[in-house]
Amino acid sequence: MSSSASAPQRLVQTSPDVRAAVLVDAAGALLDCSDADRDRSRRLAELAHGLVEAADAAASEPTEQIEAQAADGMVFVMRDSRGALACVARRLALPALVLYDLRETLRAERAMA
């Protein structure tokens, strides 16, 4: 793993169940991604932002982490006041491990900024 890798790239490299990841700002704009396909990454960023908005609408206060399950996989989001790191993981991924990797990767990203 290269020390110059972006947060989404580091997440995919270190978390074996993570397929793709995006880093978005607080407004949901794509900042960085693990995938070379920018259109696909922009779509994932939009979906992650929509998930954050839906979670906020359903909860009494904003949540730091979000988890959603789909037929073919899972989506996880870890966020702070500056934005979020979101990823798509394999269907049988262990949520606690993926969320730990997300939290640590986002923490490291913020420490480097």
Structure, explained:
By secondary structure, the chain is an alpha+beta fold. The chain has one domain: Dynein light chain 2a, cytoplasmic (Beta-Lactamase), CATH 3.30.450.30. The protein contains three helices and five strands, in the order αββαβββα. The protein has helices at residues 7-14, 38-58, 95-112, and strands at 18-25, 30-33, 65-69, 73-80, 83-90. A five-stranded antiparallel β-sheet has the order 2-1-5-4-3, with helices on both faces. Strand 4 and strand 5 form a beta hairpin. The longest helix has 21 residues, at 38-58. It is globular, with a radius of gyration of 13 Å. The model has no long low-confidence stretch (mean pLDDT 93).
Instruction: Kindly report the CATH topology.
Output: Beta-Lactamase
Proportion in helices = 40-55%
* Domain module count: 1
What share of residues are in beta strands?
Answer: 25-35%
CATH class: Alpha Beta
Helices and strands, in order, run as HEEHEEEH
Largest sheet: 5 strands, antiparallel
Q: What is the tally of beta strands?
A: 5
What's the CATH superfamily, by name?
A: Dynein light chain 2a, cytoplasmic
- Apparent shape: globular
Question: C-alpha Rg, in Å?
Answer: 13 Å
Oligomeric nature of the chains: single chain
Instruction: Report the total helices.
Output: 3
Distance separating the two termini:
19 Å
Mean pLDDT: 93
Strands of the biggest beta sheet: in what spatial order? 2-1-5-4-3
Structural class: alpha+beta
Layout of SSEs?
Layout: H1 7-14, E1 18-25, E2 30-33, H2 38-58, E3 65-69, E4 73-80, E5 83-90, H3 95-112
Antiparallel strand pairs: 1-2, 1-5, 3-4, 4-5
Helix pairs in contact: 1-3
